[in-house]
Write a structure and sequence with these properties.
- Two copies of one chain form a homodimer.
- Chain A is α/β, with parallel strands linked by helices.
- The first copy, chain A, has two domains: about 5-65, Ribosomal Protein L25, Chain P (Beta Barrel), CATH 2.40.240; about 75-240, SPOUT methyltransferase, trefoil knot domain (Alpha/beta knot), CATH 3.40.1280.10.
- Helix content of chain A is about 30%, strand content about 25%.
- Chain A has helices at about 20-30, 85-100, 125-140, 150-155, 160-165, 200-210, 225-240, and strands at about 5, 15-20, 40-45, 50-55, 60-65, 75-80, 105, 145-150, 165-170, 190-195, 215.
- In chain A, helix 2 (about 85-100) runs parallel beside helix 3 (about 125-140) and helix 2 (about 85-100) runs parallel beside helix 7 (about 225-240).
- The interface of A and B includes residues 180, 233 and 242 of A.
């Protein structure tokens, strides 16, 4: 835990924060905090700062927060993913969260197994801890928004209003344009679409391109979805740094 | 399984191959092969090609191999890693293998927990299946060489002869040179050093720099070792493509 993440419900009337769950347990057992100690902390969807331990009563820790004036910027990449198998999704969520992602849109495509939509991991109470894990790892306070909408065409139909200003890229092994040659202005948000194992079918790539996506390739290696997402996000970040 | 990986011990006297383990099980139960069917295959540390099912006797499949003239090039990136915790190593091995890695050198640094060196995963019979998993995923035939040498100074002392021609990079959050600005000739091999959770200590970074490494930074986010390795390898691959 590189950042203690505080949530609105932890806040008490007097402005202090109180926690008594696994976060408190970690602070007591791993960090061994005592009153007066400081830890790096952040407020969910808000600024970061320093938390000072005011008091400890058994497993309950009371903290005061000194906040930085500005919250970290919202991550400027969003993902549109063919719903991966639960095992992949479980690995992927904390990793892409740690890299910084604004919204993760999960959808169905031709090669997605329908059974994946029954995964318990799709319930917020089950996947949110994985998002928190990534945020606390990378010291981020922005909680990625996870949405599930099965029809790809519906997702694409709703894109214009929300994603007008995004550079839209779809990773497709058969594309001819290498990502390495794409110019990405530093501040421009990106919407990245990644297909299922086996890839998007041609019709879906066409639908995406009709909706403003450009097909790019990252190379010949066929990667698992979680490896592909991390690789692509890292490469996009690097391209932005170069601009 | 995107590539059936055949090993020397599968080869029979008449030049055909016979398998009767989980690979055969996968071919029978998932792919549903019958005699005459072709599957994409490769020979360990050798060329790829097409395997044709000659016969099936219960769970045993006999195959003939038609090989391409040239084996895929050896991956031109090697890793020097502070031994990660077993849970991270288990995730990391198939992922970096799928991205293509020649050698993975595991070593001890100040912030590595000594107990990690007792991990059963360090035994070849335990980690080799994870390497095969990455190879079969990405259709690669080169088996990464995994070595464990505890003393970092010994690893570094032995570097010159083996890694003279490598560009040596060490990922260090406090470095001032961004990886995005490094020029990487396409054919030049890279040796990438990645520290433990909490990073290398200054003395170790100095040792690495004395051994010819350049310290680079990939940004502010503190990532898990497995996410950092995949990100850095993907970024290095992209920089090479740009040269």
């Amino acid at each position: 835990m590189n950042l203690l993440l505080l949530r609105p419900e932890d806040r008490q009337e007097d402005g202090s924060y109180a926690i008594c769950d696994t976060r408190a347990q970690h602070m007591l057992e791993v960090l061994g905090v005592t009153p007066g100690d400081h830890v790096r902390a952040g407020v969910l969807d808000g600024p970061r700062g320093t938390a000072t331990v005011l008091g400890i009563e058994e497993a309950r820790i009371t903290l005061s927060m000194s906040l930085e004036p500005q919250a970290p910027a919202r991550p400027n990449i969003d993902l549109l993913l063919a719903l991966p198998r639960p095992r992949s999704l479980k690995k992927l969520l904390p990793e892409v969260t740690a890299l910084g992602v604004g919204r993760i849109m999960l959808t169905e495509t031709y090669r997605v197994e329908k059974a994946f939509f029954g995964a318990t991991l799709l319930r917020p109470e089950n996947h949110r801890p994985l998002l928190y894990e990534g945020m606390m790892q990378a010291k981020l306070t922005h909680l990625p928004e996870v949405t599930v909408q099965r029809k790809l065409w519906q997702v694409l139909k709703q894109l214009p209003e929300r994603f007008d200003d995004h550079i839209k890229l779809v990773a497709h092994p058969e594309a001819t344009a290498p990502l390495a040659q794409v110019r990405l202005p530093r501040k421009k948000p990106v919407l990245l679409a990644v297909g299922p194992e086996g890839g998007f079918i041609d019709k879906e790539v066409q639908q995406l391109c009709d909706a403003g996506f450009s097909a790019i390739t990252m190379g010949d290696n066929i990667l698992r979805v979680e490896t592909a997402c991390v690789s692509l996000m890292a490469q996009i970040d690097l391209l932005r740094q170069q601009s």
